[in-house]
Write a structure and sequence with these properties.
It is a single chain. This protein is an all-alpha fold and about 200 residues long. α1 runs antiparallel to α2. It is extended and about 90 Å long.
Length: about 200
């Protein structure tokens, strides 16, 4: 118990430091590296809570895809850090106002926090031993039974967001050659292949 508490407080302290570095680092590459460390530490906290599936999802999806993508984008783009810092004071009032609104919302949520009457009964319900049902099995059972419609709705929202991102980023350029599946399928052999009778000794 002492070891678990020590690991929890150590991970939590380093996670808070990494989170502050994400928003305070002057170099975007350092900020992304701090974000990767934050994800790893949060995955460690999930492991301490017994949520191994969430920990692996956090590492695979966010560290392996999102954070690495951010890192590649930041490193490959020619970003002028001096120009980014020039507009800091100009947008500081707006950022401070947004931060203040967020703090007020968090305080309102914390002050008006109530416990569902049935939550105590659900928490006291017997939990099957880990050798009978795994964490992934239990999570999948809940997602595809109690929250099936919400799960499908979230997938539909992500699909709409993906289609919107493709439509917004699609640009038509005049000098770009595009693939035409209809022309490729309808192409005849006579139009694509030319047979030449080369006499002996007449080749290049």
């Amino acid at each position: 118990m002492i070891v678990e508490s020590l690991v929890f407080y150590t991970f939590s302290a380093i996670l808070l430091v990494s989170g502050v570095m994400v928003i305070s680092a002057r170099n975007p590459v350092h900020a992304v590296l701090a974000l990767v460390a934050t994800f790893f530490l949060a995955a460690g906290l999930f492991v301490l809570l017994g949520a191994e599936f969430l920990a692996m999802t956090l590492v695979i999806v966010y560290v392996g895809a999102v954070a690495v993508l951010f890192l590649f984008v930041v490193m490959m783009l020619d970003i002028s850090f001096a120009e980014l810092r020039q507009g800091f004071l100009r947008y500081l009032p707006v950022g401070g106002l947004v931060g203040l609104v967020l703090v007020v919302e968090l305080l309102l949520v914390e002050l008006h926090w109530t416990v569902e009457p049935g939550a105590v009964a659900k928490a006291a319900a017997p939990i099957p031993p880990p050798d009978q049902i795994s964490n992934s099995h239990a999570l999948g059972h809940i997602l595809y039974t109690q929250y099936f419609y919400l799960f499908q709705a979230s997938g539909l929202i992500l699909l709409i967001a993906m289609i919107g991102a493709i439509v917004l980023s699609l640009r038509s350029r005049a000098h770009v050659r595009r693939q035409s599946i209809a022309d490729q399928v309808g192409r005849r052999t006579e139009d694509a292949v030319a047979v030449r009778q080369v006499p002996t000794g007449g080749g290049v």
